[in-house]
Amino acid sequence: MTEKQKMLAGELYIAEEPELAAAHARAIALCEKLNYGGLDEKERDEVTRQLLGRCGKRVVLGRNFWCDYGENIEVGENFYVNYGVVILDVCKVKIGDNCLIAPQAGIYTAAHPLDAGVRRSGLEYGKPITIGNDVWIGGGARILPGVNLGNNVVVGAGAVVTKSFGDNVVIAGNPAVIIKRL
Questions:
Q1: Does the annotation count 24 as an active-site position?
Q2: Which residue out of 4, 24, 26, 112 is catalytically annotated?
Q3: Domain that holds residue 50
Q4: pTM greater than the 0.90 cutoff
Q5: Which of 55, 71, 134, 173 is least surrounded by CB atoms within 10 angstroms?
């Protein structure tokens, strides 16, 4: 398997491998263009569609958006990202329709081994994240590797989501817990 195949499969891989380094450099260049390019709305949409692996109609990425690769991010219709959002997409990130992400939120598929010796070797891994339709992620919230969120979920501001949740819930806290059913 290539390092990219290992990465996408959630196995240990080396991120500095040339194919992955080139894909990462491409994503950073596109994020810089989005963030600092002085683009009009049409140009921003074109760059967004170059960056993301799949996106529906009406996709807005706010200023200071960053990701690892972009090509591993799939979003549905009516997707809105506010300022300062980071999506670490070493594995697939799938987000449904009508989703909102508030400022400074983070979605992280990337992880590192617990063993210090393995971490020092440069090996890392990831776990995919799936987010359903009609989800609102509050400001400063963090969605951690391997989490799946159902439809119609509200993630409270500052929440740290360490496990998966089903449909129709409001979650908040660190670690996030259900505080209300919708």
A1: no
A2: 112
A3: 3-181
A4: yes
A5: 173
